[in-house]
Amino acid sequence: MPLDSSPVWFITGCSTGLGRALATHVLQRGWRAAVTARDPRTVADLVDAHGDRAIALPLDVTDPDQVSAAVARAEEAFGRIDVLVNNAGYGYLAAVEEGEDTEVRALFEANVFGAVAVTKAVLPGMRARRSGHIVAISSLGGLAAFGATGYYHATKFALEGLSESLAAEVAPLGIGVTIVEPGAFRTNWSGPSMKQSAIRIDDYAETAGRRREATLATYGSQPGDPARAAEAVVAALEADAPPLRLLLGTAALQIARGKLDALQRNFTDWEHLSLSTEVAASPA
Ligand code: NAP
């Protein structure tokens, strides 16, 4: 959506990282924002610096009561929500066979169902005004998958599928959707926020096990700058026709292009079988 002169943003997961960087950028631009966090004290400094253009709201996206209360409070304070950013989320390291059911379901609750709940709470207002934009902070991992992060990829692939469908459904209503796919950014994602399975199976030591260690080792030296990610997201939304997908980072772009090439090769190599499955024409 070409942003109007003073758009109202609603951002989840603003205590640290990309959410905080986005909230900071939006407020520095002079716009208004509902800056939400599980513990709103973590965003008090940010909100206090911007007077009545910012409100801090408690929001655990897995808590339906908090979701409806936060959206209602933001709409009451600012009259509307123009841009929703579903940013809250975290990672989980485990080979698929090592995944713990309770942890995996909790991951889906936060990364997928949390985003769904906030989106459903915000959409009625956007539909009524026939305008708005919904941003899903997915991941490069929503396009390409690797060992040890299968469940995280599953949540981000789910978010991508939902967002593509949503985009088709709400475009005629004047509402846009953008899926943001960051590579490695210097946030808490691969550090304090990361969860991992306590179960370790020796047979996966050289695959998922190695990648667990490699992922954790990126903490503190990830190439991506959250402040620059925030600028890029806003620039994309300011375009006349914002993209459905926005990759962030050099490696993300390279890896996504590699995935595209691999898909092309796979489709071409097996085209003969793909084209062999229609009901045979009946003899004339
Ligand atoms: P981060 O610094 O760990 O921030 C994650 C944020 O999500 C925190 O504010 C955290 O709040 C919040 N959160 C987690 N579960 C929540 C819940 N149930 N309800 C509300 N908030 C919740 O990491 P980040 O990199 O900025 O992550 C932001 C998003 O970017 C995530 O969706 C992540 O998957 C995605 N992403 C990150 C990278 C990367 O390399 N950094 C790459 C691709 C995608 P608390 O402080 O309360 O825990």
From TrEMBL:
Keywords: Oxidoreductase
Keyword Oxidoreductase applies: yes
Protein family membership: Belongs to the short-chain dehydrogenases/reductases (SDR) family.
Record protein name field: Oxidoreductase
Source species: Pseudonocardia adelaidensis
